[in-house]
Amino acid sequence: MRVLKFGGTSVANAENFLRVAEIIEKSAQQEQVAIVLSAPANITNYLITIIQKTIDGNDILSTINNAERIFAKLLEGLAINQVGFDYEAQTARIAVEFIQIQQILKAIKLLRQCPDSIKAKVICHGQKLLITIMEALLQARAHKVTVIHPIEKLLAVGHYLESTIDIAESTRRISSIHIPYKNIILMAGLTAGSEQGELMILGRNGSDYSAAVLAACMHASCCEIWTDVDGVYTCDLDQVPNAILLQSISYQEAMEFSYFGAKILHPRTIALMAQFQIPCVIKNTTNPNESGTLISDEIDCDKNPIKGITSLKNMVMLNISGPNIMKEMINIAARILSSMSCAGISVIFITQSSSKHNISFCVSHTQQTRACRVIEQEFYLEFKHGILDRPKVTESLAIVSVIGDGIRTLRSISAQFFSALSLANVNIIAIAQGSCERSISVVINNNDLTIGMRVVHQILFSTKQIIEIFLIGVGGVGSALLEQLYRQKAWLKRKHIDLRVCGIIHTRTSLINAHGINLNNWKTELTQSNTRQFNLDNLICVVKENYLINPVIIDCTASQNIAEQYVDFLAAGFHVITPNKKANTSSLKYYKQLREVATKSHRKFLYDTNVGAGLPVIENLQNLMNAGDKLIKFSGILSGSLSFIFGKLDEGIPLSQATVIARELGFTEPDPRDDLSGNDVARKLLILAREAGYELELQDIEIEPLIPAKLKTISNVEEFMKHLPEIDNIFAIRVAKAHEQGKVLRFVGVIEETGMCKVKVDCVDTNDPFYTVKNGENALAFYSKYYHPIPLVLRGYGAGNAVTAAGVFADILRTLSWKLGV
């Protein structure tokens, strides 16, 4: 036989009640079933509220009416939907029960207090009424029913409101009942009876405990707990919406889940099922075909070593310390636990420093005042004589626990747990591992709880890696990047990478959607957006309110103002990716600050497109330096636009016309003077020099400009382009002289071993690797301790919106290394 228990939400209304009846019928076709029912949702809370209002002398009429209305609506719905349901009799029964409640309340009002024995009688009415209603419904559906009266058959010991069942005696009493095999058995949850036959309450989650008791007494093959979720999840769905439904967990794992705050069975219910080896299944009344979660003695830590993450919020930590004496006081932990136990205070977490000078323990914030009073009394003499410091209290804390039988054998779990919290910028206040080695717990701040839970769950459970992108600038590179992201989204999802563009920020407007913007229509949505100028504080709010895990800001502008905010971006928890060279070519102080903040905040600052567009220049140079290499000399064509322009000069095309063509193709900077002045190449050269370890400023770079000073002073770009033909003849002469010598002109950047950097026009012959470099290509030659005399040469397209966007895309994917703690 099986025991089925249905919780309050499962019987909250007529629709659910009828669904429960169908589940009972289907189960009864397979084997005999015993049903345990809770009160409808909110009824017990209403009854408790009524008692307290009566004691306080407040009006209770509306609360009583609300409670009675729940039953009235339930009966009306059943009468409409079930032929033969005895509506009149049940209505009369409810009226009688509520008259009895009101009579008890009159006595409470006179006394201005409510003894626990009376309180127990009031709050059990919900279960009592529900059993009679279910009996009437099943009889209307032609079923025979046997009702077990728990006050008579379950022997309770202990307190009126928190009692425990004597299983042996209760088994004897129940076995004395003659129950036909075809009968459906009904029993009210929560209640039992004392030796004298007084009504007793089984305490918190008492109906679940009732089901476990009945299963033990009747030697059931299984106990099913029906509720409003599909089973036990790896995490609270409110905190982690993508939590995973667990197929099975062991009794021991279930105990850890329950103890550390998961909405699952009470520990004593699990303990009872474990004691009698009764498998338990958690199932969903509204989704009965779902298999649910099995709780049993089977351990599958090889398949699922970690079962979940739980949390307890609003904790308080008390820290007791002593400068020198504490290591001699070997009984201090025992005194703490003993005094708390005597006061009825649950110590949820305790840890001791290795120096034995500090002991910290956590209790619920509701028990803070009592806990402090108990400690003050217990260690009064030690505090008085200065042997111990007075306790330090830290409020607004949360306990996060990772649970699973595999923790005992897998050494990497704790490392992943702590790394995840570190990557989420969550400070760990204290750490403890359960003595059974099935859980690891940390204490953190309440405010960090949700983001901490999400990042830990992402690392421990999810194969999907998430990147949340906020793009600043939708010019050539930004637009090309959005097109690539849109095109590759489905392909990356097959690789378990979820790219979400959560923000597109333009000069005058922005588009924000924390769940992801539809890139198929982003231009129209951006145009129609009412969100105005970019604001970092607003983005931080979006990230925090939506608990984004891996936010990335991508700067596809040439703005100095945006570049100067990178430190703020990183400190706020964003990765920063940019083809904008302004930050890395600002002052050396800011250059160093960026890297310090990135390290401190565990965020990535990626800028591989600063030099060479889509070529992996920065990454390769960093790898060489990290491997202990040393730069001896560098020479390179660093400007795709100038590579293109100088290639056109070889073909006899004037400089001005070549510049126009390059600009139309998107090879140049927005202002071509940044290219022709040599400033763009100088910035790239400075970045490479700094990556190689040279501490230089931009003014240290020697530049041979292509345009005279008088053209630089022209403020308007279009006006400048009109005057550019004035220097065509100068370059035509230089090109001709070079051709006479069998050479070509190339615009190169050079770094000497001494650190001297120069940007210049060079004549190269056919033996030089730069001779054939044109059409927008970059070529970089690194002469180093490892690569000498033959240099490491990188060559490829170094200009164009699509190429640069592809380089940014590669940097975006590099942020995923955060998951591995790289």
Automatic annotation (TrEMBL):
The keyword Cell division does not apply. Keywords: Amino-acid biosynthesis, ATP-binding, Kinase, Lysine biosynthesis, Metal-binding, Methionine biosynthesis, Multifunctional enzyme, NAD, NADP, Nucleotide-binding, Oxidoreductase, Sodium, Threonine biosynthesis, Transferase. GO terms for molecular function: aspartate kinase activity; ATP binding; homoserine dehydrogenase activity; metal ion binding; NADP binding. Its EC number is 2.7.2.4, 1.1.1.3. It comes from the Bacteria. Residues 473-607 form the Aspartate/homoserine dehydrogenase NAD-binding domain. Its cofactor is a metal cation. It catalyses: L-homoserine + NAD(+) = L-aspartate 4-semialdehyde + NADH + H(+); L-aspartate + ATP = 4-phospho-L-aspartate + ADP; L-homoserine + NADP(+) = L-aspartate 4-semialdehyde + NADPH + H(+). Residues 326-379, 400-458 form the Aspartokinase ACT domain. InterPro entries: AceGlu_kinase-like_sf, ACT-like_dom_sf, ACT_Aspartokinase, AK-HD, AK-HSDH_N, Asp/Glu/Uridylate_kinase, Asp/hSer_DH_NAD-bd, Asp_kinase. Residues 2-284 form the Aspartate/glutamate/uridylate kinase domain. Residues 616-813 form the Homoserine dehydrogenase catalytic domain. Gene3D superfamilies: Acetylglutamate kinase-like (3.40.1160.10), Dihydrodipicolinate Reductase, domain 2 (3.30.360.10), NAD(P)-binding Rossmann-like Domain (3.40.50.720), VC0802-like (3.30.2130.10). The keyword ATP-binding applies. It holds the Pfam family NAD_binding_3. GO terms for biological process: homoserine biosynthetic process; lysine biosynthetic process via diaminopimelate; methionine biosynthetic process; threonine biosynthetic process. Pathway: Amino-acid biosynthesis; L-lysine biosynthesis via DAP pathway; (S)-tetrahydrodipicolinate from L-aspartate: step 1/4; Amino-acid biosynthesis; L-methionine biosynthesis via de novo pathway; L-homoserine from L-aspartate: step 3/3; Amino-acid biosynthesis; L-threonine biosynthesis; L-threonine from L-aspartate: step 1/5; Amino-acid biosynthesis; L-methionine biosynthesis via de novo pathway; L-homoserine from L-aspartate: step 1/3. Coiled coil: none annotated. Homotetramer. Bifunctional aspartate kinase and homoserine dehydrogenase that catalyzes the first and the third steps toward the synthesis of lysine, methionine and threonine from aspartate. In the C-terminal section; belongs to the homoserine dehydrogenase family. In the N-terminal section; belongs to the aspartokinase family. This is Bifunctional aspartokinase/homoserine dehydrogenase. It comes from Candidatus Pantoea carbekii. The lineage of its organism: Bacteria, Pseudomonadati, Pseudomonadota, Gammaproteobacteria, Enterobacterales.
